[in-house]
Amino acid sequence: MARKKKRTRTCQAATASRLPFSCIVKPVGARCNLRCEHCFYLDKTQYYQDSSPLLMPDDLLEKFVRDYLAAQPAGLDEINFIWQGGEPTLAGLDFFRRAVALEKKHAPSGLRILNSFQTNGTLLDDGWGHFLKKHDFLVGLSVDGPQPLHDRFRVDAQGGGSFAGAMRGLEVLRRHQVEYNILTCVQSDNADHGVEVYEFLKTLGTNFFQFIPIIEIEEGLPPDASREQGAEMADGYRLSERTVSGEQFGQFMVEIFDRWLDGDVGRYFVQFFDVCLGLLLGYPAGVCVHSRRCGRGVVVEHDGDVYACDHYVFPEYRLGNLSSDRLRDMVDGRRQTAFGVGKETGLPQYCLDCEFRNLCNGGCPAHRTVAREGEKFGVNHLCAGYRRFYGHAMPVLRAMGRALQQRRPAADWKLFF
After folding, report:
1. 156, 264, 274, 310: which one is catalytic?
2. Predicted confidence (pLDDT) per residue in 202-211, tens digit
3. Rounded to two decimals, what is the model's pTM?
């Protein structure tokens, strides 16, 4: 989620990790009031059937806050707490009041604390709006497009659509002037309506959009596949009907990109475009999907279990528990380091030879499902879409890069085309 930067003086952490890292915290685990058909996290409750209720206890919350702050390397001027689910509003306002108080209690002097909060919006009310504004939370609101496209897979426990509830939550955020972005899942249904989705999102009162492709692998890639040398392809796999094809995703992004060029550059910001442009200019990817290596973004479950990644919450990828293990030791340990390196060492030759390798870096290893003859490792499910987009957009993005290097706005790209 994008946020306007505010500079503060740096601080020194008491104990430090080698490199900065982030934690996606699941205070209620996978518990959610909706039953979105494309959600990959709902079934994680199977690992915690004996845990009742699914809510992070106060002592564990304090230990996490303290350890997370202490483990960051020296020299940082801000740290972001990322709260997700499931649906994090189910933790209740009192939980987050305690979290904010603990952040203030344990934060070193001069360190700016940020909080990001991903929600379906349906449970937001004025109490939440007041709290989120008061404590400067950045909210990611999940909206998949106009009502028919949003309601196709984002349903409640009775199978009804959630669009009306999300729009009520949006009005809460607007009324209380809470900073928010829109996160849109790109699935098999809305992927054929790129411009319609984009134009609708522009009416929702924010300038920042994230598009997350839905890839649901139902069979074929076991969760215990070795990541130390990359995940090897299994013979055969099956994708859900909700999965967006690589070609669909590429065309979706091309259509939005072309519409964005028509007067929206510098006015609206699409994370995927920003990442591509930043990589062309030599900046880090900023998101793990397109970075050379991963492993610096772990998941903290409600009971203190720590996992390697949001897409690898399986017993085989459990790194330890906050009650018995130090967070920085889990993040910097051999297993997690090997996990992160595996993103690079698990690339097939097809990717190593690709002209766009440094832009996609093979994408998320969890989605490397396409087997190629003679290759040990799989190619990303989205490869065709990435190549479609990069081949289409690179001339313009390079022109934007040249404009920025000349201290001109990216919107002046035509002068450098």
Report:
1. 310
2. 999 999 999 9
3. 0.92
